[in-house]
From TrEMBL:
<dbReference type="InterPro" id="IPR007485">
    <property type="entry name" value="LPS_assembly_LptE"/>
</dbReference>
<protein>
    <submittedName>
        <fullName>LptE family protein</fullName>
    </submittedName>
</protein>
<feature type="signal peptide">
    <location>
        <begin position="1"/>
        <end position="23"/>
    </location>
</feature>
<keyword id="KW-0732">Signal</keyword>
<dbReference type="Pfam" id="PF04390">
    <property type="entry name" value="LptE"/>
</dbReference>
Length: 173
């Protein structure tokens, strides 16, 4: 009988704990009273930064990666307009620079850097709005061509950038 009573108390405690978590979910996101989000298309303006190049489809791919990240880590509904949370911005840098050299002064390693400028609006909590630049890189062997490493580079860079944007906008650490 005591064991059965202990299980009931334990379940009651778990229910109370989960209810006290309020608008948090298991990703640690603080969505407050927001129910929806939108991610406006990230235009690629990287060619306006010296040394940067334009990659066709990069804006679309990054926009989709950010949508997927938020969709997978929250219970928010994705919408095309009037979202409670709005993400917008532009890709402002996409360039490869040499990082290390060999003894005979040849490039041994290159670094692909991508930067995005993000504006975040939270219609349910306006003091959470921000505009911020996020940047990440991918190092690769100089003997490799950019097209040969691009898929792996984009996967790693997008993962880090979207996680950083998510943490800045919804992380309450």
């Amino acid at each position: 009988m005591a064991k059965k009573h202990g299980i009931k108390i334990g379940l009651l405690g778990l229910v109370l704990f989960l209810q006290s978590c309020g608008a948090y979910n298991f990703s640690g996101a603080d969505i407050g009273t927001a129910e929806s989000f939108q991610v406006n298309f990230f235009q690629n303006y990287a060619d306006q930064t010296p040394g940067s190049t334009i990659v066709p489809g990069l804006g679309r791919d990054f926009t989709l990666a950010l949508q997927d990240m938020i969709n997978n880590l929250t219970s928010l509904s994705l919408t095309g307009s009037n979202g409670d949370l709005v993400y917008e911005g532009e890709i402002v840098e996409y360039k490869v620079v040499p990082m290390t050299a060999t003894a005979d002064q040849r490039t041994a390693q290159n670094r692909l850097t991508m930067s995005v400028n993000v504006r975040f609006y939270n219609t349910t909590k306006e003091d959470a709005d921000f505009e911020k630049r996020f940047s990440f890189f991918y190092d690769f062997d100089a003997a490799a061509s950019l097209p040969s490493i691009q898929a792996a580079a984009h996967e790693e860079i997008f993962e880090r950038l979207t996680q950083d944007i998510f943490n800045a906008s919804l992380g309450n650490w």
